[in-house]
Amino acid sequence: MLHRIPCYPTRQITSLSEDLKRKEEHRRKSNDEILGKLNSVNSENEKIFLENEKLKASLDALGISTVSVENDLLSLQEKTKLQKNVVEHYNNQVQELQAEVEVLKSRYKTVFSENRRIRESKCLEVYEVSFAVL
Predict the structure, then answer these.
(1) Is 77 left (phi over 0), alpha (psi -120 to 50) or beta?
(2) CA end-to-end distance (rounded Å), the chain
(3) Which distant-in-sequence residues (6+ apart) come within 8 Å of 49 by Cβ?
(4) pTM (whole model) above 0.70
(5) pLDDT digit string (tens) for 79-106?
(6) Nearest alpha-carbon partner for 66 in 58, 54, 78
């Protein structure tokens, strides 16, 4: 029986040793997988970080562009307001000139009528003088 006892622990040690090797191999593979996943996640995080930085830069550029466009818009609105004032001024001048034209037309008609009346009167006088002389 003494002979068997040493044999049994040797098998048990061998079995446990193989078990330990399998578990260590499994642990190593598991660690390698975890390390691979961790590296993949770190790589993805780095890509996301770089993309985030690019997006921030783009957002800043858009902000600057937006301010520039808003300033241009304000400038154009101011120019539009000035142009509307100029148009209104010209419209007022046109109305004044149209009123003056109406006054001049009226005066022309009056002068034309007066001229016709005077000519007719002169013609009548010449006619009467002509008959009186004959």
Answers:
(1) alpha
(2) 190
(3) none
(4) no
(5) 999 999 999 999 999 999 999 999 999 9
(6) 58
> CA 125 to CA 131: how far, in whole Å?
10
With tokens 């830069």, the residue in question is 57
CA distances (Å), origin 61, targets 30, 68, 125: 46, 10, 93
Entry field: residues in the chain: 134
Q: List, for residues 58-74, the tens digit of each pLDDT value.
A: 999 999 999 999 999 99
C-alpha 51/C-alpha 43 separation (Å) is 12
2 three-state secondary structure = coil
Residue 133: other Cβ atoms inside 10 A? 6
Spatial distance between the Cα atoms of 57 and 54, rounded to a whole number of angstroms:
5
Burial letters 69-93, b for 16+ CB under 10 A, else e? eeeeeeeeeeeeeeeeeeeeeeeee
Give dist(CA 21, CA 18) in Å, integer.
5
